[in-house]
## 1
Amino acid sequence: MKAHVYVTLKRTVLDAQGQTIADALRRMRYQGIEDVRQGKYFVLSIDSQASESEARSEVERIAREVLVNPVIEEYSFHLEA
Amino acid sequence: MKAHVYVTLKRTVLDAQGQTIADALRRMRYQGIEDVRQGKYFVLSIDSQASESEARSEVERIAREVLVNPVIEEYSFHLEA
């Protein structure tokens, strides 16, 4: 089973890296880009013996405790069989 | 419209950062994690006047030319209305 975890800065937190990319794209004349936010993406491969609910709670725990800084970041994830 | 772009190292490229996270999780006694791959995640906000096919080709161009190093990385994306 694979878990895809997406970590982004909260909307209220300035994303300097994303803004830099957006500015660069505008300077390079790419059309119609209003904003860019950059985040992190993790793919966790999980032991196939784990049930879906076990995997879900383990991934949530790992995200909350290790991958995400809850002060400035938020996350979402989905499981793939 | 928003485009979600996921950039990962190709399978054949060593992902040292992902391996470090996997090793740390094992040391911290998280159960059943076999492997971790780390990638980048971008959310592009696109001018709502663009059609879906225009947005799609623009995002593909930006990914290929700016966000992705095609020698070592691959990407996928999806659009969200």
## 2
Amino acid sequence: MALGVKAIPFTFVVHVLGIAGLILVLVWTIDFRGGLAWESTNKSLIFNIHPVLMLIGLIIIGGEAIISYKSLPLSKEKKKLVHLVLHAIALILGIIGVYAAFKYHNESSIANLYSLHSWLGIGIIVLYAIQWIYGFLVFFYPGGSGELRSACIPWHVVFGLVVYVLAVGNASLGFLEKLTFLENSGVAKYGSEAFLVNFTAVITILFGAFVVLSVLSQAPAEDDHSYSAI
Amino acid sequence: MALGVKAIPFTFVVHVLGIAGLILVLVWTIDFRGGLAWESTNKSLIFNIHPVLMLIGLIIIGGEAIISYKSLPLSKEKKKLVHLVLHAIALILGIIGVYAAFKYHNESSIANLYSLHSWLGIGIIVLYAIQWIYGFLVFFYPGGSGELRSACIPWHVVFGLVVYVLAVGNASLGFLEKLTFLENSGVAKYGSEAFLVNFTAVITILFGAFVVLSVLSQAPAEDDHSYSAI
């Protein structure tokens, strides 16, 4: 265990930052950018689905899935179920969010997959899915031998955290990219929208940092420490 | 210790990726962007100093400073000296690199400190300096008590890695931001320069990932494991 402090306070901070991030991204997309729509002649409303679903999905629910092992007063089996179900929801929302970005591009005749954000995004969603499938098979159903699980758990934790940190970093790239496009179209560089988007990105990064700190801290005493591979 | 594998192979990969990243950023700034200059009527040449120094400094030398504890066959005291000297060089190059960005902005009448990249960059360089000063005082001179050092080392490792990962993420933001500006000025989205910059960012991220994996893996057997706090 890396840090000699309890994880629970960090997980409270994660929840608060998650709520703050959710509010900020909704204020941005609804108040400043006109709202969300799956079908619309105003194609920007289709785009708006992308940041909302990516933030709620991969970042917030994905982060809650990670810390659920440290923060829930449940049995190991129940926590495992919560962990994999939350990650499945995160992944599904992430896939719909990625689809929304392509839909917006295609209906607006904007090129696909030329930016670093898009390249990394495709890579991350694929790695997230691989991590989920591998975790499901080894730790849930059918489940590997005790020896295999013991060998896999540190890699599961480290690989999962690497993919999660990449997702948080790529969310920041997305906020910067979109805001740069908007500023090129006339949005003020020091205006309220620019500050809102930058602060949303900062909150997202802090959220990710506190998820990582939760993992590196100590599980509650009653815990079986099965997750404390790091 | 998180991962039951030796760190040394990971550190070899770090060196190779570092050399690759260095070559790519030099090809970009010199071949595609006209070279580097501290004083020039072509202000873009002043900007070019920024990505080169940030990548060589905070990312490559900073990463080598981190893994030096795992990769060098030296005594603990000598490794500590290498670690702090490399981090000092990284920090100084980083400060000059940040100054170059301001110099370019000021001489080109471009606004300062409006973007997420600039906000995070200032925060990261300050945190990097705090981490260096605190590490110097506690672990080198005058040095804290054994008890204080033991209490501080896990936080030193975790805080250092968080700052380093933020630096790698912010380098990616910088590459994406600059390329987006260039594409708005006519650089082709699927052209060779765009691919070069995106691949440099991908190499930078892989470099950072392998630095983290080195830290999470096992020091050579003859090592005193003093750094193995995680």
